[in-house]
Amino acid sequence: MIKVDYHRDLKQVQSDGQLTAWLSDSNQHAPFDRLAWFEGLAEHCGLLPMLAVARDGSDLAVLPLQGDGGHLHALSNWYTFRYRPLASRSDALLGALAQGLAAEARRVTLSAVPDEDRSATRLETAFRKAGWLVRRTACDTNHILPVGGRSYDQYLAARPGKLRTTLRRKSGKVETRVLDRFDEQVWRAYESIYAESWKPEEGSPAFLRAFAAAEGRAGRLRLGIAHADGEPVAAQMWTVEGGTAWIHKLAHRDAAKPLSPGSVLSAALFRHVIDEDRVDLVDFGTGDDPYKRDWMEIVRLRYRLDMFRPGSPRNWPILGRNLLRAGAQYLAATAKRG
What we know:
By secondary structure, the chain is an alpha+beta fold. 37% of the residues lie in helices and 29% in strands.
């Protein structure tokens, strides 16, 4: 028999041995899928968590959610590369979650959902079968590099000529280091560099620092720092696990841009994760920034799933607008074909 329950106090989750084990790094091999990640979002980013959990004996399915007021969202933010249900292969468990959430929310919105693992399709199917109206749209892109057994030198030979020329001309002017542990001095340098970079203001420095320190203790952190004339000019934060290198943060001082320190440091980190960590995949997160195309080789879509309870009057204005938009798109497509 399938049982569904909800957890808004993540501290209480730690007393649930089965759930804690399922959300640990022994079972989940990406940072965005673990209880520690959700705890960090709640503690440092002000999110209100709600873990929806379905169980059938030893099988588990977890949908990490946030919010209240009848509209629930994915328990994620700008630091999350992708969001997916943490489920066994049983579609019945996802169906039970979708059915149970009908009593908890009038609307559920999940963004950055992948479909190379069928997460988007499984969620869409489960919610439709449970009586929800589902709108699925592409919302973002994800750039990746399948290493395919290549060495770093083989990988580099396939990069655009302009990038290879930049690295050849600038590498001798910048000194790089890659650390596999958290270092206070290097982290302070990273924060200083970020403050003088082209990047927007950091969303939650406390979250990022706590995450980096925890990944350092676990041996998964790859912290890169570049110096020019003894001064730190670029820094990057990557993590490595389960055969994947995740590129979380990168920044360089605007004043050092003529030295291309970001590119030189990226090259050092690619060399490290390919030749030393021997990863199978490098994941550059979300966003279609042009520079990512120089380093990556494949683009994957990320989807937004908007689920509505059709019987909720508060959903009717939104559903009406969606219907009008779909009608206009259909008419435009028909006119174009005609």
